[in-house]
Amino acid sequence: MVASSSSLKLQDLIQEIREAKTQAQEREVIQKECAHIRASFRDGDPLHRHRQLAKLLYVHMLGYPAHFGQMECLKLIASPRFTDKRVGYLGAMLLLDERQDAHLLITNSIKNDLSQGIQAVQGLALCTLSATGSAEMCRDLATEVEKLLLQPSAYVRKKAVLTAVHMIRKVPELSNIFLPPCAQLLHEHHHGVLLGTIMLITELCERSPAALKHFRKMVPQLVHILRTLVTTGYSTEHSISGVSDPFLQVQILRLLRILGRNHEESSETMNDLLAQVATNTDTSRNAGNAVLFETVLTIMDIRSAAGLRVLAVNILGRFLLNSDRNIRYVALTSLLRLVQSDHSAVQRHRPTVVECLREPDGSLSRRALELSLALVNSSNVRAMTQELQGFLESCPPDLQADCASGILLAAERFAPTKRWHIDTTLRVLMTAGTHVRDDAVANLTQLIGGAQELHAYSVRRLYSALAEDISQQPLVQVAAWCIGEYGDLLLEGSCEETEPLQVEEEEVLALLERVLQSHMSLPATRGYALTALMKLSTRLRGDNKAAILEKIPLVERGGSQADEEAKESKETAQLSEAAPVPTEPQASKLLDLLDLLDGPSGDAQHPPPLDPTPGGALIHLLNLPCAPPPPAPIPNLKVFEREGLQLNLSFVRPPGTRTLLLITVTATNTSGGDVTHFICQAAVPKSFQLQLQAPSGDTVPAQGGLPTTQLLRILNPKKAPLRLKLRLTYNHFGQSVQEIFEVNNLPVETWQ
Fold this sequence. Notes:
Residues 632-747 form the GAE domain. The chain is of the alpha+beta class and 752 residues long. The protein has 32 helices and eight strands.
């Protein structure tokens, strides 16, 4: 197939390109035609210029270069013929943007066309300005657009309103120009004009505090418009599935949400209307669900009544029962946002949320898992943990790590008893041991070591679990540690809390040998097993000659329990002073030998009195305090300040989990305008684990109002120096702001 020697018509060009069997043939056709188009442009044929540009635009849509047609667009726009202007403006929208200086050359042409009385030409100019208008063009043409907002033609008014929306987004300081016409446009009966007006007012309120204050006076009028839509309808041609003009309803609800945020009077005015919309909207169709969802968001963002907020949560609960997966996902996401502020109301839908864990859709089950973990508290921890453990046994591999970590965190916070805590952790290790956090082994050994009454129970449970499966490395490590520490209790067989278990020495040693020889055992696991074997040599045969292999004393992480044990240790030391001291015990000889490294033997210094409690020699040998003082509070840190918005970080390291750092991000605002759409995102190095809790809100009120807070949970198993990267996005004084910065000066107490 060979292209003709003369220039093709647009229809013929499209047909030849479609008939090309290879990409090379397509390029050949396009290159030949582009050569004809260039020649026609050079010849300056004014009658066929728009036809040549139309073909070039089709070539541009196929992805081929068409930049040489930019100046021809300007010539066609300046032409008095409508056929030329139509193609010229279309070419300008496709080929020109703010990066080309040529787009500034059409400013005068657009200004002239806007001042003409021809509606079709005015519409073309407005469409081009709203699509490609730069900040400079918007400043130059704002007055002309403002005049067209009140033109008799609804066609022109609609396009002028949409162009004004673009101008406000480009140049927020133009807000004052468009404020006066909006009040008159709210009385409009044309659907397109009214919808565009609501969008324009929304943009003005989001970007200008003065506009927000101005339009709050019009809340009753907006309420009246929406009530008319709900009760009598606006126009039948804009109804969808029996819902009266859902697009206009959604836009009005979004505007009411902005106007009622942090404003008691406006919120009170719209409360009754929101209740009416929430109860009367038909939810059998998707259009009704869209209106209902926007109603819920509005109720939650304004200062609504408590009963209205419960109604909103119940609507989201009904969404969870919807057959549409998208609606269920939206409901789960919204409930996750509300769980901090309306926890009790969300709790009522806990059974439905748990049912969503079984969703085959991965995105739904992940959202359901996040919400289920957020709903766990001290009153439902047993039931919720049982459901989550059932989900852990069958969940996809990509969710096992999040589920396992969530169960362990919930158990640490809300465990009713130590035995329940141990059983729960063991079950997680047996089910998904390879997916747990790095500090799970240390936490469980600390838990077992601190529960003396459960030593026999724990060692039997772990021995049985280890005999069944040695593939879960964290489980094997804890079991080996426990057998090494309490192996003598394993052989006694006198634990009333478990089934009778008769274990011989040879069976225990054979099991540890099996762990050592397994190809699945990590180096750390073999280390635990070797240590257990060494300790069993003193536990099982009664050989007490190696004090270093005594049971490891529990090193408390601070708190009241450590203080009580320190008091008991002191009392025991006082009693030991009155008791006869045995002559040169084995541990004393060991310490005297090691003391030779500190100085010459002739020194008059003597070692401190030894703690006679079991393991006391090892504590002094390792220079570990019996009861360390509680850690000092970590100082707060200011990390960001701009135009009255300030960001402060406060830190807490829970005494029970020293690898866990809780950071509270507090945003305050001392400026005269609210900070809206506030989002704080964080990132940490790969060796850390970060969990962001839902913020208390997305608006930071002006004049030092109630601050916005957000909790960051950071796990630092390696206790490495912490680096934090933050990204802030928000709107302030009509400007959209994004800040990305690193926090490298965190106090050393946050990670050491």
